[in-house]
């Protein structure tokens, strides 16, 4: 089977199922696992690389208001690659090519590929995406083994959390998916926080993240503040941290005084509904309950 993956999380699923050699096309954002650099890139973005965060937000909002495409598919290249399967999503127009465009182009390709649409908003939905891809590629048995292992890891964290909650209340957390402007957390992040023994005080469970005000954070005065900018690694997130630290009342927040303000790699982990959501949960568990102040490779203290 020849597979074109039109979102990074799908590429991760396909590779986890042992089908990396079947991938004939990927997006410009597919960066995991290693060994994808030789695969043709079939998408383009209208947003320039390395823009300031507020400019990125402005361009995204403008595109959504005017129905201009943030991402486009290279029809000619796709037709040349002759995929049997296209894997896409309709969850977020900011994250990947619009599903309707994919369906339209697929109908015109000479290979007449099957189209799978993934739309996860929770951990269970993420498991379901693995099953959908496995069903289309005849890897059902391997998928079930993978999912069983993931659920075992989740249960291990839940056992640890239950022991903690026997003598302490949930940790009050504010999770920010963007700094300029401020966005709360959306979709699966609240679930991960709850599983790790926290309460996502400003999150939108199973719904998109939305713009919030700094006063919302001040009024919560969280025990822990986590910054995981969507699509940013920690190095890029670090560039925006001064804007957060310069906000009025930053130094008075409980989490700042107790040194419980963290940043994580939103691109690798929390932002993508991929199998690495389980890694994200384990990182949260370590962050919230480890005796170590922080682990440089997984998360950093905002100082």
So how many helices?
11
Distance between the termini: 49 Å
What's the main sheet like? 5 strands, mixed
CATH class categorisation of the largest domain: Alpha Beta
Strand order of the largest sheet: 9-7-11-12-13
Structural class: alpha/beta
Radius of gyration: 20 Å
Strand content: 15-25%
How many domains comprise the coordinates?
A: 2
Low-confidence residue ranges: none
Number of strands: 13
Output the CATH topology of the largest domain: Rossmann fold
CATH superfamily of the largest domain: Nitrogenase molybdenum iron protein domain
Order of helices and strands: EHEEHEHEHEHHEEHEEHEHHEHE
- Named at the architecture level, the CATH assignment of the largest domain is 3-Layer(aba) Sandwich
What does the model show?
- By secondary structure, the protein is α/β, with parallel strands linked by helices.
- The protein has 2 domains: 117 residues, Rossmann fold; 133 residues, 3-Layer(aba) Sandwich (Rossmann fold).
- It contains 11 helices and 13 strands.
- The strands form 4 sheets. Strands 9-7-11-12-13 form a 5-stranded mixed β-sheet, sandwiched between helices. A 4-stranded parallel β-sheet has the order 2-1-5-6, with helices on both faces.
- Helix 6 runs parallel beside helix 11.
- It is globular and about 60 Å long.
- The relative contact order is 0.12.
- The mean pLDDT is 90.
The gist of it:
With 303 residues, this protein is of the alpha/beta class.
Mind sketching the topology for me?
Elements: E1 3-5, H1 8-16, E2 23-25, E3 43-45, H2 53-66, E4 71-73, H3 75-81, E5 85-89, H4 99-108, E6 114-118, H5 123-137, H6 140-165, E7 171-176, E8 186-187, H7 189-195, E9 198-200, E10 204-205, H8 214-220, E11 224-227, H9 234-245, H10 254-257, E12 261-264, H11 277-289, E13 299-301
Parallel strand pairs: 1-2, 1-5, 5-6, 7-9, 7-11, 8-10, 11-12
Antiparallel strand pairs: 3-4, 12-13
Helix pairs in contact: 5-6, 6-11
